# Entry
Amino acid sequence: MSDYTITQDGYTPVKCDKPLPCPFCGTEPKLAQLAHHMRSERIGRSRRFLQVEVCILASTSTLTADTFWFKCPKCYCTTGGHKDTAMEASKVWNRRVANSALSLTPPSRKSK
# Structure
């Protein structure tokens, strides 16, 4: 089921499970992804350096993302957390859709 490939400008194509429609409005979700880079920053005037992770906002080269999540372009709901792979993000999104469908089922009432 992971034969689904998502391509976005500026990023390497990623494979994941096909995301299900939004549980609230039925719109097809979009993959959001970010790439980060580690750089060293000097601590004051000392010879010590601190490793700082920065987000790459624009680049002329194709980026390989390291943070993924799905979001709905219509109602703006998201998976609620960032994942390390697109596959993990799609599993969380699809699980959320399945769980919301279960929660919308009315409970059965026992007759007295």
Observations:
- The mean pLDDT is 77.
- DSSP finds one helix and five strands in the chain.
